[in-house]
Write a structure and sequence with these properties.
single chain, alpha/beta
Length: about 475
């Protein structure tokens, strides 16, 4: 896909409202090294180095949606145990997620513990109960769903077959979404797809599809025919089949289908890749992106996330980078000349600066607010050397030319420049912008270059921080 088109579509996702209902779990990772076998049995000894946790299942879908810029309502059931408390605390700290947590003290919170040696899994231990939640708990969950539905653009049903969304619950959810005119996208686990009848889209992997229907061969045409027939017989808007190395196939009840091949990418860990796929599909469809383009976005997002360890998320900047955007002209004198031309036409020139490493929704909020308040927006990027001085030796994750290319692909941005210093004072002096934009809790009088803008009759505009998105948090999550 074209990087500029990708950027426009990702901007459209910002602020969309999506509700997720399904099975949440806590993913625990025990990392270490293996250098010897146990003398007691022929098994490796894992020398533990660190222990980390992150939300999994439907909670990971919610985290992925929030990472794309959506406002998320998450409804699920946990136990009243330490894992449930920990999951609630993690999700509750995410400002973009409203977690409606129904506690059932009679069942444990599903917990999956993965033991990894050099980031490769060697063992997984599951702690769970998969019986259907009782009537009282189901009543609380359904009441919360009905209360939360107004104002939602789309609902994701994330079924991991852990008992939260039994067939009766699914039928009630479908009835409520239909009455409200809200799209329903379902990630199925049950082999009988009739349970999910009426969903606008189903997102099984190939194994799940084969469990639901007989497929005569392994060619794309065979898979498409089986999926189309299933979509028609169960009144499904479409079935999106994830095919691992072969990409994704979207089939509709009328027999039409399309295939999007995978992008070449080293696969490190497929944990949570399905969550990323349904999150991107949901975010895109809820914002009006066409089905075919939504599939392409999901395929790109999946390609990014499988290159990471654990149940990872993906940022808008990483998705745009997969399209290999072209680095813009970074010649500062040429940009200064363009600014003079714009000024002569009466345009107000805005300027925002930062590292913009792994472009995330917080960055996009700042840039959109800035672009809405000026006629031309220039972005000043810290050089790689400058970022290292400010953020540490491990930064930036994306180099200055790639960051500049991503920034230039945004329709909000009219020019990009890179500065080597710790502050953009020299660049501001050269470009002479009319408005300086800064995010966070800065005071206008403390913003570098504010006096230069004031001398021209300009001003400094402080844009409040949006949520708690940060590049550091993204890096930490991926490291976990």
């Amino acid at each position: 896909m074209d990087a500029s088109l990708l950027a426009s579509q990702l901007l459209a996702l910002q602020g969309g409202s999506v509700m997720v209902v399904g099975d949440v779990m806590l993913d625990r990772f025990v990392d270490g090294t293996v250098s010897r076998l146990s003398p007691e049995a022929p098994v490796p000894i894992l020398e533990k180095a660190e222990d980390s946790v992150m939300p999994g299942g439907a909670a990971n879908v919610a985290i992925n949606l929030a990472g794309l810029g959506c406002e998320v309502r998450l409804l699920s059931v946990t136990g009243g145990d330490a894992a449930g408390l920990q999951l609630g605390q993690i999700l509750g700290s995410h400002l973009a997620i409203d977690f409606h947590q129904v506690v059932d003290d009679t069942r444990p919170t599903t917990t999956k513990t993965r033991f990894r040696a050099d980031k490769q899994q060697v063992l997984r231990v599951d702690e769970e109960v998969t019986r259907t939640i009782d009537g009282r708990t189901a009543g609380h969950l359904l009441a919360g769903f009905a209360e939360s539905l107004p104002g939602v653009n789309l609902v994701v049903l994330s079924d991991y077959a852990k008992g939260t969304v039994a067939p009766e619950m699914i039928a009630q959810i479908k009835t409520l979404t239909s009455k409200a005119g809200v799209q329903l996208v379902t990630d199925p686990k049950l082999a009988d797809f009739a349970v999910y009848a009426g969903s606008d889209m189903l997102t099984p992997n190939l194994s799940e599809l084969k469990a639901a229907v007989t497929i005569t061969g392994d060619d794309l045409e065979d898979i498409a025919a089986a999926a189309s027939n299933l979509a028609k017989s169960h009144d499904l808007g479409a079935i999106l089949v994830t095919l691992s190395a072969r990409g994704m196939l979207l089939a509709r009840g009328d027999g039409t289908w399309e295939h999007d091949p995978t992008r070449a990418r080293e696969v490190f860990d497929v944990s949570g890749a399905g969550d990323t796929v349904i999150a991107m599909i949901a975010a895109a469809l809820s914002s009006g992106v066409a089905e075919g383009d939504a599939v392409k976005l999901a395929n790109i997002a999946a390609g990014v996330v499988v290159g990471k360890a654990g149940t990872a998320t993906v940022s808008p900047g990483e998705i745009i980078a997969m399209a290999s955007p072209q680095t813009p002209d970074l010649d500062v004198p040429a940009l200064a000349a363009r600014c003079e031309t714009w000024r002569s036409r009466g345009d107000r020139i805005g300027f925002a600066n930062g590292c913009f490493d792994l472009l995330h929704p917080g960055h996009l909020h700042l840039l959109k607010a800035a672009a809405d308040s000026c006629d031309r927006l220039i972005v000043g990027l810290n050089s790689d050397a400058s970022v290292k001085r400010l953020k540490g030796a491990s930064r930036p994750v994306q180099g200055e030319r790639q960051r500049a290319a991503i920034m230039a692909s945004l329709p909000l941005v009219d020019g990009v420049a890179v500065f080597e210093e710790d502050t953009p004072l020299e660049l501001i002096t050269t470009l002479q912008p009319d408005i300086l934009f800064k995010g966070g809790d800065y005071r206008p009088e403390d913003v570098v270059g504010g006096d230069i803008a004031a001398a021209r009759g300009g001003k400094v505009v402080i844009i409040p921080t949006h949520g708690n998105h940060s590049t550091s948090a993204l890096i930490q999550t991926d490291a976990d």
